[in-house]
Amino acid sequence: MTSKLTRRTWLQGVPAGAAAGFFVSTSAPRAADSPNERLRIAGVGATGRAGADIAGVASQDIVAIADVDKQLLEKGAARFPGARKYADFREMLDREADRIDAVVVGTPDHTHAPASAMALRLKKHVYCEKPLTHTVYEARVLAELAREHKLVTQMGTQIHAGDNYRRVVELIRDGAIGAVREAHVWASAVYTDGKFTTTTAAPAHLDWDLWLGPSVKRPYSEGVHPFHWRRFWDYGTGTLGDFGCHYMDLAHWALDLMHPVRVSASGPPVDAVSTPRYCQATYDYPARGEHPPLRLSWYDSGKQPPQLAELLKDDPRDQNGKALGTGGGQLFVGDKGMLLANYGQRCLLPKQRFADYKPPEPSIPKSIGHHNEWLHAIKNGGGTTCNFGYSGALTEAVLLGTVAYRSGQTLEWDARRLKVTNSEQAQTLIHKEYRKGWTL
Asked: Exposed, middle or buried: residue 361 (CB in 10 Å: 0-12, 13-18, 19+)?
C-alpha cells in the first residue's frame, strides 16, 4: 500500500487531486465507540518534540513507540511501561496496525512525510509536528490522503491554540486597520554552519541508517543527531522551515491565505550542505474574496522589517501595557493603521489613532488545547484548526521560500499543478529522490 514516486512526477508538476489517487480506501477509519473510550495511540519519535506531543495525548493509551535511538526510546517510553518499543516506525505501524487508532509523528523533518503517509494509508488519524513535511510535494500528498480517507489530522503549530492569535484574527477581520496589502513576519533563531564529518562511528545506541530514512546514504556525521539536523538541507530547512509555520500561520489564518503565485528569496551564497545564516523571502498572494492582493515579507536570523525600528520608538505596548518585544513577530500594514504582534502580545499602531478604539467581542472560542482539539475531533467528529488541508497549504508556502532561495530564482507558481512554470531548476526542488526501501 505504498505509492511509487518517479522523478517525472514532480519535474512535470502534479494535476490537482492526483495525489489522492495513490490509494483506494475500502473501509472507514476506526473511531472510538464513545467519547469516553480511550484511543490507542502510537508515537513516532520518543523525546524532544515527539515526547512533548506524546505527553499531550497521554490521557489516552500509548500502546507503541518507535525511535532509532535506543537511549532516547528507553527514556521516552519509561512513562508508558505497557507500550511496545520499536526502532523502525515502519515495522511498528505494520505490526500494530490492528491495535492503534491514531499516530503522533515528532521525528526530524525528513521523515515526517513517510511516517505520516504510511499511517494515513492505514487509516489512522495523524498528529504531525511542523513543518508538516520536508518538501512541497510531500505536503500536498499528505493533505490529499487525509481528505480522501476522511481522517482527523493536526499539525503541531501549538501557538495556533493560543488566545492572542485568536484576538489578532478578530481585529483583522473586524477591519480595525482596514484592508491589508502588506505583512511582515520575522523570527530570530539561527540555524547554519552545518558540516558533515566522517571520522567518527555512530554510537552503538543509534541506528544511523534508519535515522537517515529516505535521505541520501551518508557516513555517520557527528553532531547531526539529535538536534542540529535543522542546519542541513538533507534533513531540515533552516530557520524559515522551522519557524515559518509558526509565524506565517497568523497571517495565513487572519487573511485567508492559501497559495502564493510568486515567491523570491535572498541571502548569503547558497551552500550545498548547510542552511543559510539568514534568509529573506517575499511572497505575493492573489486577491481572496474581500481581501486585496497581499505581499508577505519574511526575515530570519536577526533580520527584521526596515520600518520596525522606527515603530519601536513609539514604545508599542500590548493590551496589558507590556512593551512589545522584537525577538520574532508579525506586522500587518493596513490602509487605516498597523497591527504589531507576536506569540502572546498585540498592539494597534499608531497608538494615538487607536486610543478610543474598542476591539470586537471575542468570536473565536478559546481552544481546548492543540492536542485536545485533535483528540476531541477523533472521538466526537468535527475538525481541527490546523488540519492537513490548512497546514499543508501553509507548509507548501513556507517551503517555496526555501526553493526560491536555493534555486536563486523568482518562482512563478501554479499551485493547482504544483508547478514552477518559469524554472526547471527550481522544479527539481519541489521534491526529492527517496532512497531505496523508503516510500511516500
From this structure: exposed
